[in-house]
Design goal:
Chain B: This is Cytochrome B6. The complex is a heterodimer of chains A (about 210) and B (about 110). Chain A is mainly α and about 210 residues long. Chain A has six helices and no strands. The chains are: A mainly alpha (about 210), B mainly alpha (about 110).
């Protein structure tokens, strides 16, 4: 089976994401990368936990002054839903429904953009209403590094998935691009994994005090 | 081959079987999603409701986050499927180092 061979519903394998050697390597390499990302985010979480509420002056805002439930709740629901829509995309990929897969990935991108928009609004709000900036305190540095790094991952994921959608729009599904789509969806789920800990450790625990 | 093509010799039968299997799996994914939303709601409500102390809420919402991440990894990212031995090794190693890192930072700087 050649990777760029024109596939049909009949010839489409059950696990297209791991059919070729290149796909198997990609799958393995990407999971190794995700293991590394886990460690990377752990160091950022650890830094945040250690420096949380470390401010030089007592009039500066602390975590419990900054965070509000409605905004974080909306962001969480949006990102969680975008994780499900990319599951739908991979479901259609396995069924060789190229159009449906592209549509679900499109919805994922729209939800990701909404999340990013809310995050930009949030950071802007903290900077202008509270004077909580990257350089205002150790707390600020740790907060923006952790949450901003996650936001950068979302932005990169959006670029990645959008590129895949556009690059392959006229190509259709084949064994060359199916693993690419699959790995991008893994990346998107991992962004949601990190967010689960961010909304719990940073926002909810921050509001508890 | 564990993840190869399932072949009965009749492609039509295979496709129908696979579609049914995929549809069934998708149904499980939607149930997983509903559970994740439910866990998230409980975590937010536990914090919004002012009747609990931090000593109860913090371990409780961390536990909910842990459960939710297991759902995400094992169902949405298919880590429960066969052929995921290496991903499991990578992720467990990552989680172990992550745990030790966070333990070190928090204990050394706080105590």
């Amino acid at each position: 089976m050649h990777v760029e061979e024109k596939m049909t519903v009949e010839t489409w394998p059950a696990a297209p994401e791991k059919q070729t050697l290149e796909a198997k390597n990609k799958f393995l390499g990407f999971w190794l990368f995700l293991g590394g990302e886990t460690v990377l985010f752990a160091s950022l979480f650890a830094t945040y936990l250690a420096l949380k509420d470390s401010v030089p002056r007592s009039d500066m805002p602390l975590a419990k002054d900054l965070f509000e439930i409605p905004l974080v709740f909306a962001m969480t629901m949006i990102l969680l839903t975008s994780s499900l829509t990319s599951v739908y995309a991979m479901y259609h990929m396995k069924n060789f429904s190229f159009k449906k897969m592209q549509v679900w990935l499109g919805i994922t991108v729209v939800l990701g953009l909404a999340f990013l928009g809310l995050e930009i609004y949030e950071f802007n709000h903290y900077v202008h209403e509270f004077g909580h900036t990257f350089t205002s305190s150790a707390f600020g540095s740790a907060f923006y590094t952790l949450v901003g790094f996650h936001g950068a991952h979302v932005a990169f994921g959006l670029l990645w998935i959008t590129t895949l959608i556009i690059r392959n729009s006229k190509r259709g599904l084949n064994l060359y691009n199916a693993p690419k789509y699959y790995v991008a969806s893994l990346y998107w789920h991992f962004i949601d994994v990190v967010w689960v800990f961010i909304f719990t450790v940073v926002y909810l625990m921050g509001m508890v005090g | 081959m564990a993840n190869g093509q399932i072949n009965s010799g009749n492609p039509r039968v295979d496709i129908e079987y696979r579609r049914k299997k995929n549809a069934e799996e998708m149904k499980h994914q939607v149930i997983t999603f509903a559970l994740m939303i439910f866990l998230t709601l409980i975590a937010f409500v536990a914090v919004a409701y002012e009747g609990f102390t931090g000593w109860f809420i913090v371990p409780f919402i961390l536990l909910l986050a842990g459960v939710q991440v297991v759902f995400q990894l094992f169902y949405f990212m298919h880590m429960s499927h066969e052929g995921h031995e290496a991903p499991k090794l990578f992720m467990y190693t990552g989680v172990l180092i992550a745990f030790v890192t966070i333990l070190c930072y928090t204990t050394i700087i706080w105590w």
